[in-house]
Design a protein that fits this description.
single chain; 2 domains; five-stranded antiparallel β-sheet
Length: about 450
């Protein structure tokens, strides 16, 4: 079985933008890659070779139901591509619920661009819903021998390309199966013109386009779950284009307790809304390590080598007596001035300059959790000790090291220290040097 190519952006515990919510992730599946044989068809409109068909799924916690996809005056519903979207002119529909099962056998109709809430097609007795091809075990009624060959009458049918980018062949798995609970009460607004009944958006074939943006559109039904209850992945769109796609979604989810929550891609304006960054694609990715300056709490996925500058906490005010030229993240309450030192002992924070030595203390890891290592070099053969003070000058840890010379390295257990910033002071004879570390 070929490996399916899927973008999956899972939740991270350190990111609270979708934590504790019912939406777990967005899945963008590469459903099919068109080839030169598919491009021979003219009945459904010209489909360029190399066009990719994507399916967009929203995965929710088991038991939750998706009941609305929308854009309103506060939140934009957006689908975009760097190239035009493909819409089948022969059998294509704006909403997948309106596609008859037999239409999937015609030319390139199975690659039409549309919206949905789970449902992909129907017959007089069965209703089908989308699921990942990798999870589809009931075979396929799409492509190859099931296809009419398009306008050129291709003997072996269309949609037979086995490009590895799309994983499992459409002739093996079509990504559709039945569902026990079939939603009802479908309604929509802002996509099909109410007077002419024409869809001139990217989901209709009246004209081509690269973008759908609306603050007054929706598709809704009574609520739908995924075909596989434990996975609960609900299909919301199929998009065919040769370009790179992006989208922003806003949805209503019926929670397991019966309440309804609005999950939005950007901004929160009402109490019944929750921000969920996973509803924006491509996601905002970068450095997810809070120990680096490049970190942003809005990132939901990491990029290799994006964390470049480790944070060095300290006072960055050159007028302060404890100005730290090595700091790159200012902690203003650490800064001490004559008579002003945040209730700390200024004689400890800012000792006489004559007592300072050019001996650098190296502390790692910083921030630390259970243990840190204190290293220093160029020490004279004198009595040596280190003291760890909290941010108010209280001694937390003290240890005499005896007479040492050259360099010293000490492992220190800080697991019982409260979270916060600490000062390390190393005494070597009459000389004193300082450094800070953060306990996480």
């Amino acid at each position: 079985m070929k490996r399916i190519f899927i973008f999956i952006f899972a939740a991270f515990a350190v990111n609270a933008l979708c934590a504790q919510n019912s939406i777990k992730k967005i899945i963008v599946e590469t459903y099919y890659v068109s080839d030169s044989i598919d491009a021979t068809d003219t009945t459904g409109g010209h489909l360029e070779a190399g066009s990719k068909t994507y399916r967009v799924y929203i995965q929710m916690k088991p038991g939750c139901m998706l009941q609305k996809l929308y854009g309103d005056y506060r939140h934009t519903l957006k689908f975009s591509s760097t190239e035009n979207f493909f819409n089948n002119m022969d059998r294509g529909k704006t909403f997948a619920k309106d596609i008859n099962k037999t239409s999937y056998n015609s030319n390139t109709a199975a690659l039409d661009t549309w919206l949905t809430l789970g449902q992909t097609t129907k017959t007089s007795v069965k209703t089908y819903f989308g699921l990942l091809k990798s999870e589809d075990t009931d075979g396929s009624f799409i492509g190859g021998a099931n296809n009419d060959g398009g306008s050129a009458g291709i003997p072996n049918g269309l949609l037979t390309n086995n490009d590895t980018l799309a994983g499992i062949s459409l002739t093996v798995a079509d990504g559709m199966d039945t569902l026990t609970h079939v939603p009802n009460n479908w309604s929509d607004n802002g996509i099909i013109d109410l007077i002419s009944s024409v869809d001139s958006t990217i989901f209709g074939s009246a004209k081509t386009g690269k973008e759908f943006i609306s603050n007054n559109a929706y598709l809704q039904n009574s609520g739908v779950t995924g075909v596989i209850p434990g996975n609960n992945e609900v299909l919301v769109a199929q998009l065919t284009t040769k370009g790179d796609i992006s989208f922003e979604l806003n949805v209503e989810v019926k929670e397991t307790d019966g309440t309804v929550t609005k999950y939005v891609a950007t901004g929160i304006d009402t109490l019944d809304e929750k921000l969920c960054s996973y509803l924006k694609f491509p996601p905002d990715c970068g450095c997810m390590d809070p120990n680096y300056l490049e970190y942003k709490s809005s990132y939901i996925c990491s990029i290799s080598d994006s964390c470049k500058t480790r944070i060095v906490l300290g006072c960055m005010d050159p007028m302060a007596c404890n100005y730290d030229p090595n700091a790159n993240y200012n902690v203003q309450y650490l800064c001490c001035y004559p008579g002003i030192c945040a209730d700390r002992d200024i004689s400890l924070v800012c000792p006489p300059l004559s007592n300072e030595i050019l001996k650098k203390i190296h502390i790692f890891p910083n921030p630390g959790t259970g243990q840190i290592t204190i290293e220093a070099a160029n020490l004279d053969f004198e009595e040596t000790k280190y003291i760890i003070y909290n941010s108010y000058g209280k001694i937390e840890i003290e240890k005499n090291l005896g007479s040492v010379s050259g360099s010293v390295s000490q492992d220190v257990n800080i697991s019982k220290l409260p979270h916060g910033l600490y000062l390390v002071r190393l005494y070597n004879g009459n000389s004193v040097s300082n450094s800070t570390f953060l306990k996480m």
